[in-house]
């Protein structure tokens, strides 16, 4: 399993965990009509198997929650290292070099700043290409 697959697995795993738990958006919707709250929770428990593949995974909310859970001050929106740390992954140079190979980086791997900028942008684009909902300003 490659580094990208580990990242994707961590994010999609968090998305499935969020679906299994009462999601804030569902409980927010339920507050406008409190009576369907119980059926909504039942529907949420049964629908992930049918709706998960077609529903895009909200990358920003998952990574924001991962940062909060980590207890660290991480800027995943601008740093590949922070993004990987938020997911509890090894963000070492060797791991990032491996990810660079997977994502087709052709530049100098010794220029870690340039490589990191490429990795961040390429990773978010690949997540979007694989069904992730990534904020448009991060894909520019």
From TrEMBL:
Region feature (Disordered): 16-54
Domain spans labelled DUF3597: 3-135
Pfam families (UniProt xref): DUF3597
InterPro entries with a match to the protein in the record: DUF3597 (IPR022016)
Organism domain of life: Bacteria
Designated name of the protein: DUF3597 domain-containing protein
UniProt source species: Rhizobium hainanense
Lineage: Bacteria, Pseudomonadati, Pseudomonadota, Alphaproteobacteria, Hyphomicrobiales
């Amino acid at each position: 399993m490659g580094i990208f697959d580990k990242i994707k697995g961590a994010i999609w795993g968090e998305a499935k965990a969020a679906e299994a738990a009462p999601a804030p958006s569902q409980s927010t919707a339920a507050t406008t009509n409190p009576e369907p709250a119980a059926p909504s929770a039942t529907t949420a428990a049964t629908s992930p198997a049918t709706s998960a593949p077609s529903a895009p995974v909200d990358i920003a909310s998952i990574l924001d929650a991962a940062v909060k859970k980590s207890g660290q001050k991480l800027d995943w929106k601008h740093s590949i290292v922070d993004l990987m740390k938020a997911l509890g992954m090894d963000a070492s140079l060797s791991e990032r070099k491996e990810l660079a190979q997977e994502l087709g980086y052709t530049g100098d791997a010794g220029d870690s700043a340039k490589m990191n900028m490429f990795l961040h942008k390429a990773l978010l684009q690949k997540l979007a290409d694989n069904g992730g909902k990534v904020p448009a300003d991060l894909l520019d």
